[in-house]
Amino acid sequence: MVRDIPVHGTLDTVTYVGNAVRVTGWGIDRDSGSAPLIVDIYIDGAWKQTLSANTYRPDVAAAYPAYGSYRGFDANVPAGLGTHQVCAWAISVVPAGAANPGNPQLGCRTYTATLAAPTDVRTISRADDGTTVFGFKDNSVEETSFRVVITRQYWEQYNDPRWGQMYRAYYVDRQFTVPAQAGTAEVTATTVTGGSDCRTTVYAVSGSIQSAPAVKGWC
Ligand SMILES: [Ca+2]
Fold first, then answer.
1. Is residue 163 one of the residues assigned to a domain?
2. Rounded to the nearest whole angstrom, what is the distance from the C-alpha of residue 22 to the centroid of ligand 1?
């Protein structure tokens, strides 16, 4: 009677690399002979990519010498920000006439990826009419735009019963969107500010996800 020999393998690592996860692991099935095992990658239960387990894995060869050194898989699979579960399923090779045990899962791993905030917000130039060019560092590849908020400060009279002091207050003077540029780069934007009493806050945005703020103290 012909019998199926089961798959062995593991999903070893899932690492977010910016718009994708790098997925590594290995798999063998004696019934596949010299052909690599086929592995399907699912994210949050949805199929994303089919891989061949044919990359170099000397550690697997050391444990299973009969299968050679190329039984790993290592690929970047498109993936997004947030928290997501990545699962790898092997496609079992079953001899004709043998009962099919179904495709085994090699493992699941969950990753969390956040959108990096811009850094190094600074004024590049400022003209007498208030036209200001400022720049910042784009720290990721996922953002689709940046939200820029100019906040102005003023001195608001406030009668504190104990001190009678003045307090400084802020209001949003203007906000606008700067399109993202490809890759990690320096981004510049131009706006008009009416004085030195303002500050600039920049957020990276990707869909509904927004980064932490990057603040320049004063415009
Ligand atoms: Ca098999």
1. yes
2. 26
Compute the distance from residue 28 Cα to the ligand 1 centre, in Å.
Answer: 9
CB 77 within 8 A of CB 23: yes
- Residue 145's Cβ-count burial label (10 Å; 0-12, 13-18, 19+) is middle
Which of 86, 113, 140 marks a domain boundary? 113
Ligand 1 center to 113 CA (angstroms): 36
pTM for the whole thing? 0.78
Confidence of residue 84 (pLDDT cuts 50, 70, 90): very high
Closest CA to 42 of 17, 70, 23: 23
Q: How far is the CA of 213 from the centre of ligand 1 (A)?
A: 52
Number of domains in the chain: 2
Backbone angles phi, psi at 7, to 5 degrees: -75, 145
The answer as to whether 49 is a domain residue is yes
User: Range of 131's domain?
Assistant: 119-216
| Statement: residue 211 has pLDDT above 80 | yes
